[in-house]
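thought: fold this chain, then report.
action: predict
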Amino acid sequence: MTKQTVLTGITTTGTPHIGNYLGAIQPAIEASLNSNYNSYFFLADFHALIKCHDPDRVARSTREIAATWLALGLDTDKATFYRQTDIPEITELTWILTCMTSKGLMNRSHAYKASVDANREAGRQDDDDVTMGLFSYPILMAADILMFNADIIPVGKDQIQHIEMARDIAGRFNHTYGTLFNLPEAQVDEQTQLIPGLDGRKMSKSYDNTIPLFSPSDELYKLIKQIKTDAREPGEPKDADSSTIFQLYANFATAAEQAQMRSKFDNGIGWGDAKKELFEFLDSYLSKPREEYNRLMNDLGFVEQQLLKGAEKARSHAAPFLKDIRVAVGIRPLTWQGGSTAAAAKKEKEQSAEQLARAEEGRRRAILMQLKPLLDRVNSADDSATEAKRLIAEKAAEVESLKKKARQKAQNELDLLREELAALLV
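observation:
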């Protein structure tokens, strides 16, 4: 079985917070232990320069993020952990891909369009303060992904477009020069999009509502006490599912611990007591990794060594692959002699068949992830067979009501639902 490659980048512009841990770091480290995957994790310090022009902040964030991943148990012998700027092949590939990317594709980037819209609302010129870094950073992101022919890219919903752009760029290159790149698939975990911050909105540096992962105990308690709550008094039952306190607790707790806390909410625990329980639980949960984090922050030579080890591993793939890419586009030694056309065609056909199979499997997984709520609906029904048939009928009706591209997408979902529910549809 061919291993699949999973790649995750972390922009070095802020201090890691609980949302980062639950949404990206924890699942990534767990995935890195799976022998069916090649895991690549990198510090996206070139990406940091797009919006952050504070060098001290970028440098501090790089230290903090590197130490955080190691403190949380990332095994650098099993995963490739590196700094983007230590892989010069990525910037060279970025230029090659830039020469294959239409301006029209970049014009459609959400980040660029948002900047244009903001300028128009403020009465400024469309491109005021829009740097070429902001305009073309999807190409750098494509190079990050395609340099290692990554199959799976765990991202938030706001990044799905960039994975689609990477696929477009790879497809155009493959069509022009021959198949060298896989077509990556976005992997979105709906649950990780729901980590609430201090104000109840999604935890994000943009909202200034984060809880730094390794805050000292007194600072952690101070932040937790700022979590917004409603006006219900002690003794009044409280809705656990709408409470930021309970949601944060539940993301770390076992099922039994969640049930115990939910019971306290039902019995009217006071908000102050609930915040204290959340603090004590998180402080205990994070105490050992926090201690290791502080140790690593005082031993940055070791952290640097781990990053350089990862860079060496990454470049052992990137350097020879870039030579193949250079040859493909015509940047060759004057004495270069290509192999036979027949041999090259056979190799490309073999690669294409394997890549198509991997791409199809990635596409299938991506669709299944989107269909998970529907499959859960069937699995949790009292009569799963009846519910499965009802779901298929609903989906079939939806397909008939749609046109062209939308219909094809819905048909793909219907076909996969029929496969997954085949045993119940007999």
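thought: worth noting. The chain has a mean pLDDT of 89.
final: tokens above.
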